Amino acid sequence: MTTGTAQPLKPLSLKKDGDGLRIEWNDGATTFAPFRALRKSCPCASCTEDVGKPIDPFRVLSAQEAAAGAPVPVGMKPVGFYAYQITWNDGHDTGIYPIELLRSLGENVSPR
Ligand SMILES: [Zn+2]
To answer: Going from the N-terminus, what domains does the chain have, and what CATH number goes with each?
Structure first.
């Protein structure tokens, strides 16, 4: 087992890019995570509780959801060194996204 000298994974820059989030990482990778995927993967308690429930195909969008349209973050702030709290345009702001989740939701778009 090796421990120690590897740098913890860390975003160097986060940018809104079209309908997603482009992140440059300290290991040289660049990833692009669509906002829709990020919003769907919100790790907060109220969103993860919904996961176990059957999806209602006739579910009506709440007025807030309908007005908001496509999910877009209106704010992102670091939480400690390990996560980001994202505030969405539908008013949802309880999702704390661990760095590893942001990384795993992103597609690698590093220049070749
Ligand atoms: Zn949530």
So the answer is: 11-51+67-108 (3.30.2020.30)
